[in-house]
Amino acid sequence: MHLSDDDIVRSISAHSPEGIEALYDRYGGLAHTVALRILSDRGAAEDVVQESFLAVWRRGSTFQAGRGSLRSWICTIVRNRAIDRLRGDRHRTRLDTPIEGETIEPAVSDPWAAVALELSGEEVRKALAELPIEQRQTIELAYYGGYSQSEIASVMEVPLGTVKGRVRIALDKLRASLADRMETPWQTQ
Amino acid sequence: MSHDEVADLLALDAVGVLEPSEREAMERHLATCEPCRATAAQYVDVAAMLPTALELVPPPARLRRNLMAQVYAEANATPALPWWRRLADAIPTGRAFTLVGAAAVVAAIALGIWGAGRGTQQGPVAYMVSGTTATGVLDVNSSGTQGVLTVTGLAPLPATEAYEVWLIPAHGSPKGVTFLSPGVNGGPWTAVMSGNMSLYKSIAATVEPAGGSPAPSNTEVLSGQLTES
Which terminus of chain B, N or C, has fewer Cβ atoms within 10 Å? Predict the structure, then answer.
């Protein structure tokens, strides 16, 4: 039986093991890939993935549809835990991925959920390749490297303001590029 | 703080490099600005597309098995939700709670409680399993949440292989749930599993590489039906 992301969210919020099972079956491979890319250590990556899904199970879902898709939510949890582990900062409490409390909202129609399902890795790689190299490197240092803004500025030998600008411009370009590849109307902000 | 300035912070947050000192101002703005909340969701989702560019590295089967063993073990140790909580959870979100709907939900829960009560009175159940050389039994506890498989007649395996146990639903793929462990001094092989046994129609064991496989290979050594005879 195919469960939608909405079904999975409801199942997790009801504290159902089947909800976690479905979440893992859908996004466990992606979560493992992200953790492995950040940590470059199979054992550590497996630990992070298991810890992340157990945290969702134990604390209940706080997924909020208005703050992104289920896919991005679990990616963010795994990414943050992997970065914390990379930094050896296991006690840090992240504010951007709350997993306390019981807040839950059903997923709403989300164009990016469809984008995520339909775009292939090759298409995303192409979109990334179209970015100027300095923007792509900035994004990768931030997302996978766990560097702070000032560390990125230091590594790339640019002012802090340039780092801020590059991140936003890169994400705007990426969003536009991926939307074009989907050939769907897209409202720019 | 302008929308433009906030957008910079939202993008930084999406890739995980927002400084704590910047977060408060961003959250304060988001609390009262719907367009910026929409922008935040878009940046988060674009950032989450980044891993799609990576070559997918499937996790080993043991990761799923370890995770779900832990989840089911904790689920079995967790007290059942009170009836009113299940009532609330059963109501579809965002819909008006009609009298007819309420009656239906209450009736469903009442039947569920009655059914659960019957289930707990049935006691443990034993299912026979067998293969070309192996025979055994799966003992399932009265709540149907844990099983112990005991098997004799299995040949020893090299360290690179293991007997993996699969639970097979009526519809869907087999799920690798555990491995058989050899008994001491040639005693029976055993495996313990947790989960909702009522979801599955049959059980099987196959020879797989140590660490397990994502799907069973064509090396079945025993199988059995999870239906009472």
Answer: C
Distance CA A34, CA B199 (A): 32
C-beta atoms of A171 and B47 within 8 A: yes
Binned average pLDDT, 10 residues per bin, chain A of 189 residues: 81 87 93 92 94 85 63 86 77 38 36 58 88 94 90 94 95 90 51
Q: Is B161 helix (H, G, I), strand (E, B) or coil?
A: strand
- Note whether ipTM > 0.90 here: no
The amino acid at residue A38 is I
- From chain B, pick out residues whose CB is under 8 angstroms from the CB of A177: none
Binary contact (B59, A32; C-beta < 8 A):
yes
Look up residue B50 and give its two tokens.
Answer: 């980044």
Q: Are B61 and B216 in contact (CB under 8 A)?
A: no
User: CA B4: distance to chain centroid?
Assistant: 43
Burial class (CB in 10 A: 0-12, 13-18, 19+), A64: middle
Spatial CB neighbours of B155, under 8 Å, sequence gap ≥ 6? B133
A106·B42 Cβ contact <8 A: no
Cα A12 vs. chain centroid, distance in angstroms?
A: 19
Cβ neighbours of A146 in B, within 8 Å: 16
| CA distances for B109 relative to A11, B85, B86, B89, angstroms | 17, 11, 8, 11
CB-closest option in B18, B37, B75 to A66: B37
Other residues' Cβ atoms within 10 Å of the Cβ of residue A2: 7
Q: Give the gyration radius of chain B's Cα atoms.
A: 25
Residue B97 binned pLDDT confidence (cut-offs 50, 70, 90) = very low
Q: Which residues of A touch B17 (CB under 8 A)?
A: 142, 147-149, 152, 167
Rg (CA), chain A: 17
Q: Which chain A residues have a beta carbon less than 8 Å from that of B79?
A: none
Does the beta carbon of A182 lie under 8 angstroms from any beta carbon of chain B?
Answer: no
